[in-house]
Amino acid sequence: MHHRFLLFLFVFTIFTIFQTSTAISIITPNQNITDGQTILSDDEFFKMGFFTPSSSSTNRYFGIWYNKISVTTIVWVANRQTPLNNTSGVLTLNDQGELMIINDRTNTVIWSTNSSQNANNPVAQLLDTGNLIIRNRNDNDTRDYLWQSFDYPGDTFLPGMKYGIDFVKGLDRYLTSWKSVDDPSIGEYMNRVDPNGYPQILMRKGSVVEFNSGSWNGLRFSGMPNLKPNGIYTFEFVFNEKEIYYKYELVSNSVVTRMILSTEGMIQRFIWIERTSEWRLYVSGQLDNCDRYGLCGPFGICNINDSPACGCLSGFEPRFPEEWRRADWSNGCVRRAELSCGGGDGFVKRTGVKVPDTRRSWFNVSMNLEECEKVCLRNCNCTAYATLNIKSRSGCLIWFDDLVDIRSYAEEDGQEIFVRLAASELDRKGKTKRKVRVILIPTLVSVTVLLGICLLIYRKRKQKKNGITSIVIRENNVANEKKEDSELPLFDFNAIANATNNFSDEFKLGEGGFGPVYKGILEDGKEIAVKRHSRKSKQGLDEFQNEVKCIAKLQHRNLVKLLGCCIDEEERMLIYEYMPNKSLNSFIFDEGKRKSMEWSKRYTIIVGIARGLLYLHQDSRLRIIHRDLKASNILLDKDMNPRISDFGLARSLEGSDTKANTRRVMGTYGYMAPEYTIDGIYSTKSDVFSFGVLVLEIVSGKKNRGFRHANHDLNLLGHAWRLYKNGKQLELLDSTLKYTYMLSEVNRSIQVGLLCVQKYPEDRPDMTMVVLMLGSDIPLPEPKQPGFYTERRRPQEAGESSSSNPEWSSSNQLSVTYLQPR
Ligand SMILES: *[C@@H]1O[C@H](CO)[C@@H](O)[C@H](O)[C@H]1NC(C)=O
Ligand SMILES: *[C@@H]1O[C@H](CO)[C@@H](O)[C@H](O)[C@H]1NC(C)=O
Ligand SMILES: *[C@@H]1O[C@H](CO)[C@@H](O)[C@H](O)[C@H]1NC(C)=O
Ligand SMILES: *[C@@H]1O[C@H](CO)[C@@H](O)[C@H](O)[C@H]1NC(C)=O
Ligand SMILES: *[C@@H]1O[C@H](CO)[C@@H](O)[C@H](O)[C@H]1NC(C)=O
Ligand SMILES: *[C@@H]1O[C@H](CO)[C@@H](O)[C@H](O)[C@H]1NC(C)=O
Ligand SMILES: *[C@@H]1O[C@H](CO)[C@@H](O)[C@H](O)[C@H]1NC(C)=O
């Protein structure tokens, strides 16, 4: 009995010693932790020791797991690549401050930490955070740790860990998946901060990128809309010359959460639910199929609500349409129109997106968005830009090549990106932009103020000498709380008088409806066109104001550009860019020059006018009806690009209005739509009619008005319609164009022309449709009978002959005005 008691005492003592030793979180040098012994953190939340991942395995690993959670959950493994196959492993700390696992039988080191610094009385300690550290005994400053397991994570990202790169210490902390649930060795997947370009976190399977969390945008990673401020943890992203890391901290220690990279390559956050004793999935990095990296290829965009999910960014089309139709999107999309680099390119804004892969991007944290745009425009390789930090609305992020891995989210989950497009593509954006535009439409009042300011400044400056200043109109745009500047330079009367040699006849280009037009050469050699409004005409003032109002804000490569205005006493002048090639009608209706207008040029002109008109109707900030579209109002720049001019009769409509009524019908016979001529109703569709007439004139080289045919009494429209009906539309083509035309383009132009001149406005296509029809192979509808297709002989016809000053002739000879009785 006595012996038994002694034995009991002995066992008890051993047991107690064993227990107390585990309660200490610290390991000192030459203290051995053998298999079966465990170490607890001070708060006993974490435990470490040797373990076997599952019953199917006999491998022994040294690791750390949660002590208070009923489901054994390993958060870190030391010897994950070098398991022991029996219980002969020992963990020990040497005097140099290196932790090592030794196979006790063979006395071989199977795993060890490396210490780069000299240790002074080192200890290893399991902290309450689950971090196993080595430090000098008297120094518990986190910055002085000799080593820490948090710098070498496995598949688990714990609160307080820094996830990313420390350039100073040469550390790179990233997750690697386990091979399988019972094998902690390094699996196929890796989720790692990629420091190239602007940093982002890429998840790879082997070397192939499978998922991109996206770049940090100030609030979250661009591709992780679920990463939102919450009551469970706070997070931050730090990026400077010394380090790049992401980190999260618990708000309250009562919640247990961890993030892992699963064996299937899923990034998942779990939260421990004590009540049901389970890890519940809180959020997953990958949401759906659209999160597969680059699913839609370069310049593609993935929208999970679309079917199929892949589409092209606007301005782009599938590279291989056949593949695309078979749901093979990997080759992505290509530009419909090449960038021009030198100038004319612009940007289309796309909101609610995950921004593309930033590995080959450039950024600047201090630039603002306007500077960013400029930098992008200056670099021919730049394809897109965005705000770097959407929280502080600052910084600039620029992409230089293919845009890969864009997806769309709900508006509030995404951010905006500005994609570079050729000017021609920006024109055809059409409808998609309209919604935004309607909100942005500035009050007409503020534009009217412009003229007032013109006058005011003129008075102030009256005593001053020559020179040009500019006036800046600040306009508060309530819709987006953004101030916009529009600048209309004010020219000095004397400067203009000098430029035009005191308005001498040799500088006169022509006589417009409201006064003469002069060519001018400014002191710096710049050529200008000066439209001088008649002094005493009351009508002139209205038209002048109107033109200033309309055109001051318009900017499009197919519209003539207003450079400024000039007001002096009774004088009111508008200063335009000078167009060396004068107007379209001096070419197409001129026996000599007609031949130089080959088909490709004519087609370019047709498309250009269509785009200019589309801009007026839909894309400009005011919805503008030109009301006097005709060959003499289409000017040609030095490259023979068409520029719509003469906005004297133009009217702007508010917001969504598409038609209005006037009692003063003004315009030009031959181009005016029936409903406008007869009822005074003008709309975008009456401009479409004029456009249709213009197209048929350009194709045929004949004027609608004054058209004569031996066999019938029809005008050009009627003639074209008749030919079309009989399948002989090619006879309409200008005889100087034989053999040098593209048949498909000619047929398309004639059919589009006829669709535009249909009698009823509702039958006519809108300009978006026209631009689309001209620019693609979509099947065209059959046109119905045109309006006004028989020539009506009127007395005015006498003055019909080609104007001597066609390029600026506006209303005197060709335009008519009368009051419509109602
Ligand atoms: C234990 O592992 C060693 C290699 O570390 C191996 O050679 C040996 O066969 C294994 N023994 C058992 C019983 O699995
Ligand atoms: C444990 O395995 C090692 C090889 O990994 C071997 O050398 C050693 O003898 C084994 N010990 C026991 C107790 O089986
Ligand atoms: C710890 O293990 C080493 C190597 O296995 C051995 O040499 C040493 O004596 C052990 N120390 C203690 C205190 O057990
Ligand atoms: C320790 O450092 C040596 C040489 O610097 C290196 O070969 C070894 O792989 C390192 N070991 C660990 C566990 O990092
Ligand atoms: C760090 O050490 C000091 C004294 O050496 C001690 O008072 C303090 O509680 C220690 N802090 C931690 C977090 O261990
Ligand atoms: C970033 O932009 C600021 C302001 O435009 C400029 O001063 C700075 O030099 C730029 N930095 C780089 C690296 O280009
Ligand atoms: C644009 O890219 C080409 C080819 O990658 C390169 O040669 C050229 O220097 C780049 N230009 C600029 C302005 O970066």
Automatic annotation (TrEMBL):
Record keyword Transferase present: yes
Region (Disordered): 781-822
SMART domains named among the record's database cross-references: B_lectin (SM00108), PAN_AP (SM00473), S_TKc (SM00220)
GO molecular function, one term: ATP binding
Entry keyword Disulfide bond: yes
GO CC terms of this entry: membrane
Organism listed in the record: Tagetes erecta (African marigold)
Signal peptide (from-to): 1-23
EC number: 2.7.11.1
Low complexity composition-biased segments: 801-815
Gene3D superfamilies associated with the record: Bulb-type lectin domain, Hepatocyte Growth Factor, Phosphorylase Kinase, domain 1, Transferase(Phosphotransferase) domain 1
InterPro entries listed in its UniProt record: Bulb-type_lectin_dom, Bulb-type_lectin_dom_sf, Kinase-like_dom_sf, Pan_app, Prot_kinase_dom, S-locus_recpt_kinase_C, S_locus_glycoprot_dom, Ser-Thr/Tyr_kinase_cat_dom
Protein known as: Receptor-like serine/threonine-protein kinase
GO biological process: recognition of pollen
Catalytic activity of the protein: L-threonyl-[protein] + ATP = O-phospho-L-threonyl-[protein] + ADP + H(+); L-seryl-[protein] + ATP = O-phospho-L-seryl-[protein] + ADP + H(+)
